[in-house]
Amino acid sequence: MKTDLFNIQDKVILITGGYGVLGTSISKYLAAQGAKVVVLGRNKIKGDALAKEIKAGGGEALFLESDVMAEEVLIRNREDILKKYGKIDVLINAAGGNMPGATIGPDKNIFDLKLDDFKTVVDLNLFGTALPTSVFAKAMVDGGEGNIVNFSSMSALRPLTRVAGYGAAKAAVSNYTQYMAGELATKFGEKFRVNALAPGFFLTEQNRALLTNPDGSFTDRGKTIIAHTPFRRFGEAEELHGAIHFLVSDASKFVTGTVLVVDGGFNAFSI
């Protein structure tokens, strides 16, 4: 009987968008557990700073400039990673985002939605997951095993007001996760898994101004979210660590095609 199910020592784990608020916390945690963390992103200054910080703490990290919407860049990243580490064990697709034109504010309606921005948000969140998956899954198949963790959202599980484009994109990511779980396992075997994480509400640079006022108090939207969260608070970044660790380790060896919710009860609560 295997007793080290959560051991991720020396696993090569890629994370796109790995220097955001949540990505940074996850990257540091995985490195502290002995994983070799590769952070992919467009911001070299932030990426290099994170890799340097992880190394200063005794971890192994590499930052590579990347673009989740550019296949040729991702292929170059793949070759650089294989040259350095010889394998790719896990891909965490954490890159994503939103933009004002793809939302519908309280003073607007569906006719104010900018469809070009809507498309951009769908491209970033859906194709920005699918493209890295296709590129890095090739290395996994060549290596005989692989594990992919996508980022879904509360807005994928139920339609939330305002975030029209983001919600549609993340719902598609959840569906794509289930599809790819079946596709990889049936074509290449049981050593290939695809799951998703659906975080509840965590304060990030993307949503901070939407959920909190400059003095730190909650906006009306922030108050509404807290009222519908049984834990009556927002999540802390480190509260994603356990779920991520489970999904990237052998502890979840028979788990694929799932969306793991970490939300303080938001999705389970009505009135």
Structure description:
- It is built from 9 helices and 7 strands, in the order E-H-E-H-E-H-E-H-E-H-H-E-H-H-H-E.
- The protein has 271 residues and is an alpha/beta fold.
- It has a single domain (12-268), classed as Rossmann fold (3-Layer(aba) Sandwich).
- Strands 3-2-1-4-5-6-7 form a 7-stranded parallel sheet, with helices on both faces.
- The radius of gyration is 18 Å and the shape is globular.
- The termini are far apart.
What structural class do the secondary elements suggest?
A: alpha/beta
Tell me the major beta sheet: 7 strands, parallel
Instruction: Kindly identify the CATH topology.
Output: Rossmann fold
The chain-level mean pLDDT equals 96
| Strand fraction | 5-15%
CATH architectural arrangement: 3-Layer(aba) Sandwich
Q: What tags apply to this protein structure?
A:
globular, 271 residues, alpha/beta, Rossmann fold, seven-stranded parallel β-sheet, 7 strands, 44% helix
In short:
This protein is of the alpha/beta class. It contains 9 helices and 7 strands, in the order βαβαβαβαβααβαααβ.
Topology summary:
Layout: E1 12-16, H1 21-32, E2 36-41, H2 44-56, E3 60-65, H3 71-85, E4 90-93, H4 115-143, E5 146-151, H5 154-157, H6 164-188, E6 192-199, H7 208-211, H8 220-227, H9 241-248, E7 259-262
Parallel strand pairs: 1-2, 1-4, 2-3, 4-5, 5-6, 6-7
